[in-house]
Amino acid sequence: MFIIAELKNEKGEVLSVLTASPKEFKTGSKGFYANTKAEINGKRYQVQIQLVEIGSKPKAETA
């Protein structure tokens, strides 16, 4: 499964489209992540999106 995210301006014009892939983060949490670069009004920006599933981080082991 992938997540498609659109970055739009106030007029609804699409500035960039990101496809977020499944990811397991360093913390152990699971979710989706994507990054890209976009040009807006002649300036370049780095764009990131991260979706983290709440409660997906493994429970710490007790000794």
Protein described:
This protein has a four-stranded antiparallel beta sheet with strand order 1-2-3-4, with no helix packed on it. The chain has one domain. Helices cover 0% and strands 60% of the residues. It starts with a strand and ends in an 11-residue tail after the last strand. It is built from no helices and four strands.
* Rg from Cα: 16 Å
User: Major beta sheet, specifics?
Assistant: 4 strands, antiparallel
Total number of domains: 1
Figure out the total of helices.
Answer: 0
Helical/strand content category: mainly beta
Distance N to C terminus: 37 Å
- Runs with pLDDT <50, length 5+? none
**Strands in their spatial order, largest beta sheet:** 1-2-3-4
What share of residues are in beta strands?
over 45%
Apparent shape: elongated
Number of beta-strand segments: 4
Give the mean pLDDT. Answer: 92
Measured as a percent range, the helix fraction is under 10%
H/E series, N to C?
EEEE
Please specify the SSE layout and strand pairing.
Elements: E1 3-8, E2 14-24, E3 30-40, E4 43-52
Antiparallel strand pairs: 1-2, 2-3, 3-4
Which labels suit this protein?
60% strand, 0% helix, 63 residues, 4 strands, four-stranded antiparallel β-sheet, elongated
Would you kindly provide a brief summary of this structure?
This protein has strands at residues 3-8, 14-24, 30-40, 43-52.
